[in-house]
Design a protein that fits this description.
Layout (H helix, E strand, L loop, with lengths): L1 E5 L6 H12 L3 E3 H10 L3 H12 L5 H12 L8 E4 L5 H14 L5 E6 L2 H15 L6 H24 L3 E5 L4 H15 L1
Parallel strand pairs: 1-3, 1-4, 2-3, 4-5
Helix pairs in contact: 1-8, 2-3, 4-5, 6-7
The structure holds adenosine monophosphate (AMP).
Adenosine monophosphate binds next to helix 2 and helix 3.
Keywords: ATP-binding, Cytoplasm, Kinase, Nucleotide biosynthesis, Nucleotide-binding, Transferase
Family: Belongs to the adenylate kinase family.
EC number: 2.7.4.3
Length: about 190
């Protein structure tokens, strides 16, 4: 299985990605996690992206594309993967297209977790209390929602036109949503 999971910040992508990856025995690759690990370890990349992430904006396409291209070339991704939080811009869609073409691979489905803005903002505020993520401040949450609507939501049309988009209602318990994703993917065969 070669999958993407998309949806607004706070829709539960990361949590669901782990469950799906386990179910299909594929690695869940989160660009956000890769960036956070670099920030934590104060690598040159981490120092570069720290401020951008805290503001709620997007890291540059070139860096992000390179990280994903390198990661997809690793052995554990050869038989499948789930990309969580990538692509987020049209330039990233094009970069992913060419990486996959180069590897002779194609996507099986693009899962879109749907949730309305009020709900996701409330969830992020709650996560801020629990996890204290640096980009879960009120201002950064607002910027992230706006950036998503402007830069990333249009990508859903691209994948819908390709017949790859699977829309799933992201409201409910982790298990409920997980079940919905599993049945939607099963239906596609
Ligand atoms: P996430 O954990 O997916 O919500 O990502 C957290 C932050 O990492 C985002 O708000 C961006 O600053 C950065 N980031 C993650 N993935 C990407 C991407 N594909 N393109 C640009 N920036 C990204």
């Amino acid at each position: 299985m070669r999958l993407l999971i998309m949806g607004p910040p706070g829709a539960g992508k990361g949590t669901q990605a782990k469950g799906i990856a386990e179910r299909y025995g594929i690695p869940a690759i989160s660009t956000g996690d890769i960036f956070r690990a670099n920030v934590k370890n104060k690598t040159p990349l981490g120092l570069e992206v720290d401020r951008i992430m805290k503001s709620g904006g997007y890291v540059g396409d070139d860096i992000t594309n390179q990280i994903v291209a390198d990661r997809l070339a690793e052995g554990d991704a050869a038989n499948g993967f789930l990309l969580d939080g990538y692509p987020r811009t049209l330039a990233q869609v094009e970069a992913l297209d060419s990486v996959l073409e180069g590897l002779g691979q194609s996507l099986d489905a693009v899962i879109c977790l749907e949730a309305d803005t009020d709900e996701v903002v409330a969830r992020l505020a709650k996560r801020a209390e629990i996890e204290g993520r640096a980009d879960d401040t009120e201002e950064a949450i607002r910027v992230r929602q706006e950036t998503y609507v402007k830069e990333t939501a249009p990508l859903l049309d691209v994948y819908a036109k390709r017949g790859q988009l699977v829309r799933v209602n992201g409201l409910g318990s982790v298990d409920e949503v997980g079940q919905r994703i599993a049945s939607a993917l099963d239906e596609r065969g």
